[in-house]
């Protein structure tokens, strides 16, 4: 009877250490998957619908506006590293 009593006291504990290691591995895998490039491996290519906008002579202090359509014609994700800028050229 003493052997039965010892077996009953030796309950197996839940393997928390294995669960913790598995959770840490899952977090590491999720981190690496979230931080990879994600651009689909392609190359982005930017296209605008107008290469030149000509307003003619404009007096100083008069504001003019225009709209251009920017399209990504490549097969990768187009991302800007800096804020896009526009170069203004003076006419002759």
Distance between the termini: 110 Å
Please give the radius of gyration in angstroms: 32 Å
Which class best fits the helix and strand makeup? mainly alpha
Order of helices and strands: HHEE
User: What's the average pLDDT?
Assistant: 78
In short:
This protein is mainly alpha-helical and 92 residues long. It has helices at 2-9, 16-34; strands at 46-48, 70-72.
Question: Would you give an account of this structure?
Answer:
The chain is mostly helical and 92 residues long. It has helices at residues 2-9, 16-34; strands at residues 46-48, 70-72. A two-stranded antiparallel ribbon has the order 1-2. The chain is rod-shaped, with a radius of gyration of 32 Å. The chain starts with a helix and ends in a 20-residue tail after the last strand. 0% of the residues are buried.
